[in-house]
Hints:
The protein is of the alpha+beta class.
Amino acid sequence: MVGMTTSAPRRRSRLPLVAAVVVIALVAALIGGEVYARNRVSQCLATQFQNDLGSKVDVDLGWQPVLLSLVTKSFSSVDISSDDSRFGPAQDMQVRATVNDVDLETSETSGGTIGSSTADVVWSTDGILATLQQQGIGSVVSGVTADPGAGTLRFDIVGGLAALTVAPTVSGDTIDVRTTDASILGIGIPTDLADSVVGILTDSLTTFPLGMTPDTLTVTDTGIELTLSGGQYQIPPAQADSGEQALSC
């Protein structure tokens, strides 16, 4: 009788320990699954969006749980960033974008859809100069300075002997780049040169990612800043790059 009364409590005392082990195992499994899901979805979204942004992108899923989203392929909001985006000929654009109501149900002709999007874009004078150099006129244009008070960009030609000044502004759903001054020692610079600079700037500020259009453009001390927004957009199918297989969400 004594043995029976002492062994029962011992057996019962193990139950909380077993329950704790089970709970810990379940929590660990959920955490591990969430980490895997976040990595998988981040890579998948980066693959889907990098074609539009013209470069590798970073994806931030915030605090939303991803395990369920991995099953439904739907995300309420996703933040995307790139420090080397290229729109048209543009070089070194910094983009911080937020896309809402993301649905990654894919088909042969679509990588999914988004409901709306916004973005902040920064294009520095160094990036603008690098763009001109990439397009073959960097040897003529020696420097770029921004004048936030006048809302203009000044391009020094041939070491400052000449100057071209332009004013970029938002006009409807597009950006207009207007020449305000073009002179060399008081004499007009060649029209072809001015047209080339304006043309490269215009091409760089014409096509934006995810179907977005410009809302505002501000000339700052260091370049220009844009705010963009867009509505419903169909994501193009992900393309494999350099032999790498595109991820399927």
